[in-house]
Amino acid sequence: MLKGRSLIDPMDFTIYELDEIFNLADQIIANPQEFSHLCDGKILATLFYEPSTRTRFSFEAAMLRLGGQVLGFSEPNSSSTAKGESIKDTIRTIACYADIAAMRHPKEGAPKIAALSTDMPVINAGDGGHQHPTQTLTDLLTIRSVKGSLSNLTIGACGDLKFGRTVHSLIKAMSRYENVKFVLISPKELKTPDYIKKEVLKKNNIEFVEVEKMEDVIGSLDILYMTRVQKERFFNEDEYIRLKDSYILNEDKISLAKEDMMILHPLPRVNEISYEVDDDPRAYYFKQAKYGMYARMALIAKLLGVI
Ligand code: CP
């Protein structure tokens, strides 16, 4: 039963609950009109303390396409946060006006504090370099729709695996499916955090390797999940400049890949995928962004208990 619950971490829902969400998303994709009044009279609040294009717009589009309404802020200085109001007081106030909230915050754990402060469902829309569970719903729905299954996959994650919260959430979520292997491609400065390797990969006996060179492994991958070097998490700008173009996926490199390898990216991209790759049939990142709206439509409907 998902009604009334929050989504803070990708492991908050069982794989059966995730299937409920994905099955509903499939139905919405097949017949969106049938669901266009599901959330009539309901309000989604979007509380974005950090910049966003896809997550905020797809949440808002999701609620509007379900017949509901949206309110919120994309600039925290326009809210009473600027006067020193706590997250706890903000969310308790928002719960007086809205039925469900999506929160993005630069501090790890902020959406969890919000969820613990209210009975209203709260969705983590990305907290610092920690987790991004609705990006993971997006990623899993995209993979399931294209590959037909979430099992028996070799997934290459490439780029900033240290600060890239989408990869942390993806590894956690995929660790529960059968015969999934990870190839972690990053410079040594941006390696996957130890807690993910120890508490997720090793604990669940998930096969993984860490490498620095993409060309050596791209031919073995079913999915290549590219990520941006997360400028906003660096303390030292020189270090960011040195590392930002560590990987640039181009036609030469994808000529080494399988014919059916999926290229995913949570976006935004900076330089890590050349524009020439966009026309390759293996490039799914803009379709992925669209799946994100359907995944969020299904999530909102399930958490509100309207279906
Ligand atoms: N994928 C993602 O979180 O994109 P935005 O930062 O644009 O929301």
UniProtKB/TrEMBL annotation:
PROSITE patterns: CARBAMOYLTRANSFERASE. It comes from the Bacteria. Keywords: Pyrimidine biosynthesis, Transferase. Its EC number is 2.1.3.2. Residues 5-144 form the Aspartate/ornithine carbamoyltransferase carbamoyl-P binding domain. It catalyses: carbamoyl phosphate + L-aspartate = N-carbamoyl-L-aspartate + phosphate + H(+). Pfam families: OTCace (PF00185), OTCace_N (PF02729). Pathway: Pyrimidine metabolism; UMP biosynthesis via de novo pathway; (S)-dihydroorotate from bicarbonate: step 2/3. Carbamoyl phosphate binds at R54, T55, R104, H132, Q135, L267, P268. L-aspartate binds at K83, R165, R228. Residues 152-301 form the Aspartate/ornithine carbamoyltransferase Asp/Orn-binding domain. GO terms for molecular function: aspartate carbamoyltransferase activity. Belongs to the aspartate/ornithine carbamoyltransferase superfamily. ATCase family. Heterododecamer (2C3:3R2) of six catalytic PyrB chains organized as two trimers (C3), and six regulatory PyrI chains organized as three dimers (R2). Catalyzes the condensation of carbamoyl phosphate and aspartate to form carbamoyl aspartate and inorganic phosphate, the committed step in the de novo pyrimidine nucleotide biosynthesis pathway. This is Aspartate carbamoyltransferase. It comes from Clostridium simiarum. The gene is pyrB.
